Amino acid sequence: MALEKRVVVYDEPHKDSPGIDQFLRARQFQVYSVREQEELLEALEFSAPDAAVIAAPQDIPKMSSLLTACRPFRQTLLIAVWPRVTPRDAVLIYEAGADIVMGTSNADWLGAQIRAMLQRLARERSAPAVIEIGYLRIDLNQRAVTANGEEVHLTPTEFEVLRALAERPGTVLTSGEIMQQVLGVDMPRDQAQDMLKVHVHRLRQKLETDQSEPRFIKSVRGQGYMYAFERRERERVPVAS
Fold first, then answer.
1. Closest CA to 160 of 203, 207, 211
2. Which fold does the domain 130-227 belong to in CATH?
């Protein structure tokens, strides 16, 4: 019998939202409910949950602060639940560190997203697997990335986007294809493009020496993205957390 997935749910009291913790428990998730940021951080540190679902009022600074505080716990999937998600809000929340941004009305999709992503995070852990292209080394078991021997800190979603591209170097993948592989669900083209644009931007910040002329993740106008490392002189890449 498969073990229950452990999820910590941060849900402020007296807010208008569905009972996310009850919903997830009904779908066989093991849920820890917290109400304060300190409790959330303690749960992340000492319980090591598979995912954290953060539901906060429609307050970008508050959500950004919560996500920033959670960043050190990179192995936990960070899911932001946000009422009436707009493209602009979604971009800001992704930039703050969320792996997935969901509307409060998408309860069924929320459960499906969590399961699909966690299954993807756990795949191929039974056998060693390493991808090395250029000066980048991707350890699939340890979910670790190094560039010129230095660790590069990626969120779970950033790791999966990089992996999707690096596993097929030289192949152009559409935004929809990449996000389907990363999240395990199909999504509208515009939504996939907006979501992926944020993750690619963050990856380039962490991997590229010159973001205006990327060497790893290249944009192919009107089509998508491609992993195409160009070997030049050896140089050190920026290492960002």
1. 203
2. Arc Repressor Mutant, subunit A (1.10.10)
